[in-house]
């Protein structure tokens, strides 16, 4: 039997004591940032200290704008003394999702990605939800906490971002949470975040993508080569989904010793998360949702004949893996 919101909140609060130093661990994107803000509000005056730490380098313009405009205090993962924390909360992620999380033992996991092998004393994982911001809105309502304008705007935008304005996976709970937050959010602030300017050093990747795009069976394949951040691949993948006749975009790039592959589709085709896992799961971490997914493969885990410098060969390999799952074309 499904737990009520009040029972989930009670079990969440049971994990904490007044002298706890709490670490909220995230892979920073709008949904994760907003959800971390909500956890911090839930624990306000209930624990000694709360720190939000991110494992990724934040470079996407909307993420940077969100952090700045909503005044979100974040600490980079490598700058932390993790030994001082007595409780660890993970939102919008799980320990298996990033190499920096490896070995982390969370006390709380709240997520909407499919569950992995790592368990927590309290976990609330609901893969049918379009965003964790929706879950956190339910927690706030159960705690009878009216969100501030900044928190409401963050959660409002988190839902918009992770459901792509309800064009990706969403359920009635996402819509109800969005409608509730609309009463307290600042839509002008949300618009500033959503339409944050593209960084000038990102523009070159659009040129590379357009020049190197391969179109196969309504799928757009792009390999960008070396990128300054995996967020570049996300931006390009979303960009190609706006092009007529493209039903799937698969965009890859190498960064910090990893091959990152981003999947986007129109939500009507084969499940993107399943396709990512089937195509690249044996080489590294791969999975996601029906319309959006991701694979990350250590360069050292690529087949021996592949060289990162040979970008054309690498792109051909990605196309072959996606189209044939590594099987030879008949």
Secondary structure elements and pairings:
Elements: H1 5-13, E1 21-26, H2 30-42, E2 49-54, H3 61-69, E3 75-76, E4 87-91, E5 108-111, E6 122-125, H4 132-142, H5 149-163, H6 172-182, H7 187-194, H8 203-212, E7 214-216, E8 219-226, H9 231-240, E9 248-255, E10 258-265, H10 272-280, E11 285-288, E12 292-298, H11 311-324
Parallel strand pairs: 1-2, 1-4, 2-3, 4-5, 5-6, 8-9
Antiparallel strand pairs: 7-8, 9-10, 10-12, 11-12
Polypeptide structure, described:
The chain has 330 residues and is of the alpha/beta class. 36% of the residues lie in helices and 20% in strands.
Summarize the structure.
The chain is an alpha/beta fold and 330 residues long. The chain has helices at residues 5-13, 30-42, 61-69, 132-142, 149-163, 172-182, 187-194, 203-212, 231-240, 272-280, 311-324, and strands at 21-26, 49-54, 75-76, 87-91, 108-111, 122-125, 214-216, 219-226, 248-255, 258-265, 285-288, 292-298.
């Amino acid at each position: 039997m499904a737990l009520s919101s009040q029972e989930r909140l009670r079990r969440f609060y049971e994990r904490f004591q007044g002298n706890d130093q709490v670490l909220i661990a995230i892979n920073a994107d709008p949904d994760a940032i907003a959800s971390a803000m909500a956890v911090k509000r839930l624990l306000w005056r209930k624990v000694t200290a709360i720190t939000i730490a991110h494992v990724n380098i934040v470079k996407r313009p909307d993420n940077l704008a969100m952090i700045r405009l909503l005044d979100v205090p974040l600490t980079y993962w490598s700058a932390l003394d993790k030994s001082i924390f007595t409780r660890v909360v993970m939102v919008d992620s799980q320990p298996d999702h990033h190499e920096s999380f490896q070995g982390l033992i969370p006390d709380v996991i709240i997520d909407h990605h499919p569950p992995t092998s790592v368990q927590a004393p309290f976990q609330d994982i609901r893969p049918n939800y379009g965003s964790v911001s929706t879950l956190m809105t339910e927690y706030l309502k159960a705690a009878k906490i009216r969100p501030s304008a900044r928190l409401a705007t963050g959660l409002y935008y988190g839902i918009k971002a992770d459901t792509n304005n309800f064009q990706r996976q969403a359920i009635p709970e996402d819509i109800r949470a969005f409608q509730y937050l609309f009463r307290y959010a600042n839509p002008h602030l949300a618009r500033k975040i959503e339409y944050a300017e593209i960084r000038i050093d990102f523009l070159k990747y659009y040129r590379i993508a357009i020049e190197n795009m391969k179109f196969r069976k309504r799928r757009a394949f792009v390999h960008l080569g070396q990128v300054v951040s995996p967020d570049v691949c996300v931006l390009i993948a979303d960009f190609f989904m706006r092009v007529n006749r493209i039903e799937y975009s698969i965009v890859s790039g190498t960064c910090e010793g990893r091959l990152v592959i981003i999947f986007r589709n129109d939500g009507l085709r084969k499940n993107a998360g399943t396709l990512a896992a089937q195509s690249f799961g044996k080489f590294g971490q791969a999975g996601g949702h029906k319309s959006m997914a991701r694979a990350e493969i250590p360069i050292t885990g690529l087949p021996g004949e592949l060289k990162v410098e040979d970008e054309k060969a690498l792109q051909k390999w990605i196309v072959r893996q996606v189209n044939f799952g590594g099987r030879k074309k008949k």
